[in-house]
Every structure is written in C-alpha cells, then in structure tokens.
Design a protein that fits this description.
Layout (H helix, E strand, L loop, with lengths): L1 H16 L5 H4 L4 E3 L2 H4 L20 H6 L1 H5 L5 E4 L3 E3 L9 E7 L6 H13 L3 E6 L35 H6 L13 H18 L3 E4 L7 H11 L2 E4 L6 H5 L7 E2 L2 H12 L6 H13 L7 E3 L8 H4 L3 H13 L3 E5 L27 H15 L7 E6 L3 E6 L2 E6 L5 E5 L11 E4 L2 E7 L5 E5 L5 E5 H6 L1
Parallel strand pairs: 1-2, 1-10, 2-5, 5-6, 6-7, 7-8, 9-10
Antiparallel strand pairs: 3-4, 11-12, 12-13, 13-18, 14-17, 15-16, 15-18
Helix pairs in contact: 8-9, 11-12, 11-14
Family: Belongs to the glycosyl hydrolase 13 family.
Pfam family, one: Alpha-amylase
EC number: 3.2.1.1
Length: 465
C-alpha cells in the first residue's frame, strides 16, 4: 500500500512538473521578451550583425548560457520567438514551413529542451510565441508547407486592405502571407493538436499568440482551451472596446491601449496626464479582467521610445507606468541598455556585446522588478491617488507610483493615500534612498524634481528585507 502511494505521489509530482501554468499563476510573473536570433550566440562571439533583416546567429544555447543576465534583474519568465522551421531568412519565426521541425538556426530540439530545463531549474517560465493564422511566404506553392500542403487548407487569395472590415481581416492575407482556413477540419485539428504537442513536448509554461484579429474568436477559444495555460494575444489596435472583445475567447491580450496612450502622453509634455485617467477608467469599465493583460512599453513591432524621444527620464516614467499598472508586465530586451532602434528591423538589435550589468538602466529595471515582487503588487488593486495636467499618481497596495511628463520642479500634496500608510510613517523612493517623505495629517507632500519618476514604499519594509 505504501509503495502504491509513493508511486502515485511521484507520478503526480512528475505530472505537475510538466504542466503549463494557469492565468492565475502567471499574475506574479515578470516577463523578459527576446528575439531568439538576436539575444546571444552559441559561440559567444559579439560580432556586429550587418543585416538585421536576416539571421544574425542567436540560439537556444546562447540564451541558456546567459540566463544569469536576465535573472539577475529579477525576471522569472522569458518570451521567445516562434520555434518551427521558417522560410528563407525569416529569423523572426512568423513564417512557418514545417510545424513539427524546430528552426535549425536556433538549434536542435534537444537544445531547446535543455534551455527550458535550465530555466525551470531556476524557477523561470517559458512563454512561447505561436502563430495559427498564416504560413511562410510561399504564395500558392502550398506543397512546401507541412502539414498544411493543400490549397483547400487556405482561404481564397485576397489581401487585407480595409482593417475596419472584420470579414476581410479574418479571411484575407496579411502582407500576402497565405491565410490558413481554420474552418477546414484538417487545419483546425492540426493547429490544436500542434499547440498541445509543443506545450507537452517542450514543457512550455505559457503562450503569446500572434495575429489574433485575423482569425475568428471562436477558434481562439478552442485553441486556448486546448492549450490549457495562460495565453496573451496580439491585437495591434488601441481601441479599448475592440481589444476587450477578445478577452474571453482568449485569457488575455497585449495592452495596446496603454501602449499608445501612454507613449503619446510621455513623449509630448503638452498632452495632459488626465488622458491617463480617461484611459484607465475605460480599461476598468470594459475589460473583463485587466489584471492579466500583457503590459509593455516597447516591443519588436514598434520603434523603440528612445528612437524618437531621447529624454531618458520620460522613458523611465513611461516604463514605470506600464510596469506597475494592473497586468502582467513585459520588458523588451535592450530596454536595460537604452537601445534606441527605430522601425522594424532597427528595433530588433543584437544583444551580444551589450550585456552590461552595471549600467544605469540595468539597475533601474532591477529595482523596479524586485519592488513588484517584494510588495506583491499583483495582489492589490490599482487606485488613482492624484492627477493634474503634469502628474499622474496611483498605488498598488503599499507601492505608490508618481509619474510626470514635465521636466520642471513641481510640488504637490496627496491627500488620498493608501489606507496601509500610518501617521508619521516614512516612505522611501526605490530609485533614490535619499528621497523620503513622511505621512503627516493623513497626507504626503511630494516634490517632483526635473521629471524623475518616483516609486515610494514603506521604509521599514526595505530595511526588513
């Protein structure tokens, strides 16, 4: 009997160690996004890549060898590129030729497994980018694709020209990429079987899903239910109603509403911070669950903030707002080294040769990530504490965030403070230990100096850590 129980217990432990993680479990995670081809090479060379539109040499092994660099900032999850074999020089992973063959430029299946295993030993989770809308640039030569090698597996050839026409978006081609027909039973079943296979075979913890609006909502519901893990979908649109309509068919979507609004606010001082209040109110009203949306300040599809606005303090305000708002925060590789690439492919720089763990922004990102963890902000609601044209302040539990899009000195008094703060309590800015404020008469006097972002936490908590 004892032996039977031990075998059962071991089997359950083994099963749980290879189980993808739920949406609820992902709430506590912070995600570091990489483009697999651009992060680190197997040979460790730091040779400059002269053509960012083709493969540069990043691999699974290179990423595995540099997990310390990522984990030391506090990140406990990594989003990597799609892994199927791709067409030609499509290093990014979004042009699959063979679903069941791992991209040889990234490494072997065993090297992929080794990387994931190394991550899991560190309690780091893998977020895998996946595509179910289209295949490689093969036009009508469908026989080149496996397993979708027949014309009947695709929608009739047409191009997306009107993004307001949902039918056209779902049935036509994005940039002439052959559009899979998910209404076809073979296509539907194989896409769903593949995502279940890749999760189990490589011990994947969660998904980022590409090109969501180009596929019917009902398919995504079946696809994500089959995946049985956290999945966040890409919808390149700022309209909150439109974005929110996909949360349900999907567990979560990338928070493009915040991305566009906050990017405008922090890059243009003439834009009022009241725009943030309006945006957050709309998000709370329309999304079923804002706490699981994927929040971000930069990514691989958009010019980096610093490419059009070199004001580092504004960038830091922008990053902090996106990081501490409700949601699961994602930080794009190179943010910690002030990368400033423009539109694709310039925003997809190589990381090798730039892994400076002593840089100002590396330290900044690390302080931010560790504060989110230490104070478990995902357990607390986002509450607006103060707003005027130049300042937006909000709290998450014991963490008080003060952001500004102005470089001048401003004095404000915040009277609506977190209930956890007590009279006479001292708060300290995580980015500057000399910057402290004291709760007096139920309020806090804040001095915003030269545009610096502030994140205050109880001083006693930082001492006890």
């Amino acid at each position: 009997m004892k032996r039977t129980l031990l075998v059962l217990a071991f089997s359950l432990l083994l099963a749980s160690s290879f189980a993808a993680h739920s949406t609820e479990e992902w709430k506590s995670r912070t995600v570091y996004q990489v483009i697999t081809d651009r992060f680190a090479r197997t040979d460790g060379k730091v040779t400059t890549c002269t053509d960012l539109s083709a493969y540069c040499g990043g691999t699974f092994k290179g990423l595995e060898d540099n997990l310390d660099y990522i984990q030391s900032m506090g990140f406990d999850s990594i989003w990597i590129s799609p892994v199927p074999e791709n067409f030609g020089n499509d290093y990014h992973g979004y042009a699959a030729l063979n679903w069941y063959k791992i991209n040889p430029y990234f490494g072997t299946a065993d090297e992929f497994k080794s990387m994931v295993s190394a991550m899991h030993k560190r309690d780091m989770w893998l977020m895998l980018d996946v595509v179910a809308n289209h295949v490689a640039y093969i036009d009508m030569e469908f026989e080149k694709v496996s397993p979708f090698n027949k014309e009947e597996h695709y929608h009739t050839k047409c191009q997306i020209n009107n993004w307001e026409d949902e039918n056209e978006v779902e049935y036509c081609r994005l940039s002439n990429l052959p559009d899979l027909n998910q209404d076809n039973s073979f296509v539907r079943e194989n896409l769903i079987n593949w995502v279940k296979w890749v999760i189990k075979e490589f011990d994947v913890d969660g998904l980022r899903i590409d090109t969501v609006p180009e596929v019917k909502r009902q398919f995504w519901k079946e696809y994500t239910e089959a995946a049985d893990c956290y999945a966040v979908g890409e919808i390149f649109n700022s309209n909150v109603d439109y974005l929110a309509s996909y949360q349900g068919p999907l567990p979560a979507v990338l928070q493009y509403a915040t991305f566009f609004t906050a990017r405008d606010v922090f890059s243009n001082p003439e834009t009022s911070m009241y725009e943030l209040r309006t945006m957050f109110n709309e998000i709370q009203e329309k999304f079923p669950d804002p706490t699981v949306l994927g929040t971000f300040a930069d990514n691989h599809d958009n010019a980096r903030f610093l490419s059009f606005n070199s004001n580092l303090k504004r960038y830091q305000n922008y990053i902090v707002l996106n990081f501490f708002q409700e949601g699961i925060p994602i930080v794009y590789y190179g943010t910690e080294q002030e990368f400033n690439g423009g539109n694709d492919p310039e925003c997809r720089e190589t990381m090798w040769g730039h892994m400076d763990t002593q840089s100002k922004m590396y330290n900044f990102i690390s302080q931010m990530v560790h504060a989110r963890k230490n104070f478990k902000v995902w357990e607390a609601q986002q509450v607006e504490r103060f707003v005027n044209d130049e300042i937006y302040a909000f709290s998450r539990g014991e963490v008080l965030v003060i952001t500004t899009n102005e470089d001048k000195k401003t004095e404000v008094t915040i009277t609506y403070i977190p209930e956890t703060y007590s009279e006479g309590e001292t708060l300290v800015n995580i980015f500057d230990e000399s910057d402290t404020v004291t709760v007096s008469n139920g309020s806090i006097d804040i001095s915003v100096n030269d545009g610096h972002v502030k994140v205050y936490v109880p001083q006693t908590a930082t001492v006890s850590e």
